[in-house]
């Protein structure tokens, strides 16, 4: 499995939380209580909680105040706000958040360690939190050889940092061209430049207004959510950051510029086929565990489906009415992920007689191992074996001009709201509340930051079609055996690393 795709890995050992706790989606948002019988519209994802819980989280007036600027941001129109986004004394910064990736083969194992050391990736009960890093070390060493093979096949490392740096520079130029002299920073979750490094540079530059922009078009608790929780902890511990006005753009899949840019790329690639109208458009999105959506209220699936609807509506305006489908890639571990799966769907399409397929990496804005190796190599080979004769792939957005310009517009539209809702954040323990209401989004599924519900309630043994399932079970069993040996013998890698005391 691709190393960068492991960011969604649901190694979970935790107790369940009430399913009433839900994440609120952004943009075109509506809220109803669980007792309501009215069905939501296509563009609305319902957030459910009990009447007691909802009264604690929101009042109707505060919710309206929260959603008003939020809807203005995700809409393509400029909101009705003051035309001057900041004063002459303000220093504006934009922080781009991304996953990160190993730049050399030697970086692969430490990158994987950082990934698995994240408690949002491997969730352990509080009693076993001391095992977080030893477990991350064990899994990263176990998986490094296979991951290195993947990175070696695409040139020996991930291009993600290079592309993200280029996007940051183009965004800076676009902002300056629109009379907003902002500085743009890159903060990676699991590799250099780390988010912490970007924050230190932001402080050194004396930034007074900060716009946080995750480079994930759709929000998920395992991508944007993880990065924002890290920011939350950093902000709480730093007096400078507490006093710095900031806001967050949690997702931007609905923006007209983004939709237009995606439609442009698809239209261009369709023209490379001998019969463009006969091509099946195949949207492949990064998957997430099903429990994240059904139990934790992750809006990712709903946002992804709406995003594709908007892209196809734009293509229909251009008289492009090709058949299309959506599937989810990069699943791993002994749990059920969002379906349909990309590999299984490719096989089914081949069996149904589809001969031309255009893959669209819909959840990625940069080329990396999941596009260059998983889609371009693994899925293409599978498609050819399944009877598909002609394969094409839409490139990731990268520095596409319409896309970058729209990101700049999103930043500019958010500036009047920077800090506008940040009153008493420290006392209320609600950082990152402005525009996008990230704190409320996180609190809606777990105000105490407890573990997500376990992706599976019963551990089922038996033969399975997925080798990854057995890999996961074998790894967890090996970990348990090693821990028992450590405790009983007093020897092993935990003692050597100083995690457990050495008995003399």
Low-confidence stretches: 5-85, 421-438, 444-470
CATH class of the largest domain: Alpha Beta
What is the H/E string?
Answer: EHHEHEHHEHEHHEHEHHEHEHEHHHHH
Helical stretch tally:
18
CATH topology of the largest domain: Rossmann fold
Keywords: Chloroplast, Heme biosynthesis, Iron, Lyase, Plastid, Porphyrin biosynthesis
Family: Belongs to the ferrochelatase family.
Protein name: Ferrochelatase
Catalytic activity: heme b + 2 H(+) = protoporphyrin IX + Fe(2+)
Structure description:
Keywords: Chloroplast, Heme biosynthesis, Iron, Lyase, Plastid, Porphyrin biosynthesis. Its main location: plastid. This is Ferrochelatase. With 504 residues, the protein is an alpha/beta fold. Helices cover 44% and strands 10% of the residues. The protein is built from 18 helices and ten strands. The protein has helices at 51-57, 60-74, 108-116, 132-153, 160-177, 195-204, 224-236, 239-243, 256-270, 290-294, 300-317, 342-351, 369-385, 401-414, 425-428, 434-446, 467-489, 493-496; strands spanning 11-12, 92-98, 122-123, 183-188, 209-214, 245-248, 280-286, 324-329, 356-361, 390-393. The strands form three sheets. Strands 4-2-5-6 form a four-stranded parallel β-sheet, with helices on both faces. α5 crosses α14. It is globular. The chain starts with 10 loop residues before the first strand and ends in an 8-residue tail after the last helix.
């Amino acid at each position: 499995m691709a190393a960068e795709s492991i960011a969604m890995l649901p190694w979970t050992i935790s107790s369940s939380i009430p399913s009433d706790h839900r994440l609120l989606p952004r943009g075109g948002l509506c809220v109803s209580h669980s007792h309501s019988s009215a069905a939501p519209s296509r563009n609305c994802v319902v957030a459910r909680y009990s009447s007691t819980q909802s009264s604690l989280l929101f009042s109707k007036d505060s919710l309206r105040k929260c959603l008003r600027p939020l809807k203005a941001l995700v809409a393509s129109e400029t909101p009705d706000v003051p035309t001057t986004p900041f004063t002459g004394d303000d220093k504006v910064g934009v922080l781009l958040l991304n996953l990160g990736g190993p730049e050399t083969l030697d970086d692969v194992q430490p990158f994987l360690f950082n990934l698995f050391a994240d408690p949002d990736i491997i969730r352990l009960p509080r009693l076993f939190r001391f095992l977080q890093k030893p477990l991350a070390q064990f899994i990263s060493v176990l998986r490094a050889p296979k991951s290195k093979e993947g990175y070696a096949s695409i040139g020996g490392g991930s291009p993600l940092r290079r592309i993200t740096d280029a996007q940051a520079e183009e965004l800076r130029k676009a902002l300056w061209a629109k009379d907003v002299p902002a500085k743009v920073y890159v903060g990676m979750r699991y590799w250099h430049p780390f988010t912490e490094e970007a924050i230190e540079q932001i402080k050194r530059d004396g930034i007074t207004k900060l716009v946080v922009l995750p480079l994930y078009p759709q929000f998920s608790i395992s991508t944007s959510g993880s990065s924002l929780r890290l920011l939350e902890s950093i902000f709480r511990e730093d007096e400078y950051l507490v006093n710095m006005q900031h806001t967050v753009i949690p997702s931007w899949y609905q923006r007209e510029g983004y939709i237009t840019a995606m439609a442009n790329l698809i239209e261009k690639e369709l023209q490379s086929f001998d019969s463009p109208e006969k091509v099946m458009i195949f949207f492949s999105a990064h998957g997430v565990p099903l429990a994240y959506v059904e139990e934790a209220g992750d809006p990712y699936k709903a946002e992804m489906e709406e995003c594709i609807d908007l892209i196809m509506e734009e293509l229909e305006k251009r008289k492009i009415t090709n058949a299309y489908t959506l599937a989810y890639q990069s699943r791993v571990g002994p749990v059920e992920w969002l379906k349909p799966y990309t590999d299984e769907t490719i096989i089914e399409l081949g069996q149904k007689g589809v001969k031309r397929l255009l893959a669209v990496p819909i959840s990625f804005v940069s080329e990396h191992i999941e596009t260059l190796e998983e889609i371009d190599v693994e899925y293409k080979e599978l498609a050819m074996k399944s009877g598909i004769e002609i394969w094409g792939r839409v490139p990731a957005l990268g520095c596409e001009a319409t896309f970058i310009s729209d990101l700049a517009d999103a930043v500019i539209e958010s500036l009047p709201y920077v800090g506008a809702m940040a009153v008493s954040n420290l006392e209320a323990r609600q950082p990152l509340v402005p525009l996008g209401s990230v704190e409320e989004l996180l609190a809606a599924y777990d105000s105490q930051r407890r573990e997500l519900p376990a992706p599976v309630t019963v551990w089922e043994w038996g033969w399975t079609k997925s080798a990854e399932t057995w890999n996961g079970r074998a790894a967890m069993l090996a970990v348990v055996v090693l821990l028992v040996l450590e405790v009983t013998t007093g020897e092993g890698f935990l003692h050597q690393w100083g995690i457990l005391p050495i008995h003399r």
